[in-house]
Amino acid sequence: MKKFLLTLSIITFSTFIASAQITKGSTLLESEQRAGNIRQGGIKGWNVGISLSPGISYALTNKFHLEMGFHNLAFLGYGRAKSESISSAETATTTSSNFGFQTNLGTSSPLNIGFRILLQKNRDEEKE
Question: How many other C-beta atoms lie within 10 A of the C-beta of residue 69?
């Protein structure tokens, strides 16, 4: 699975930072059905999805932040697959697509609490 992570700081005050973390993932599917040495079919396809995790952090110092956020508050996904079934007389091919949207807005939303340590020097510190 390929993953891409993007964190956006939306609103920045002196010590509070509102942020949104976006994660993209993709998967390739491929399988084959066999009976002994005889191929009976298979499936090929792919899935792609993106999830949103909003949060807020409080800067105790320039290098140490306390964070709170909702992990995977919303998810959007799309997939496509082509399957093939081979019998003694003929071959049947089916193509399918799926689309999904999921939210975790209920009372059981996963609330994360943690901290972040910033290791990179601030640009303001480098200028001095």
Answer: 19
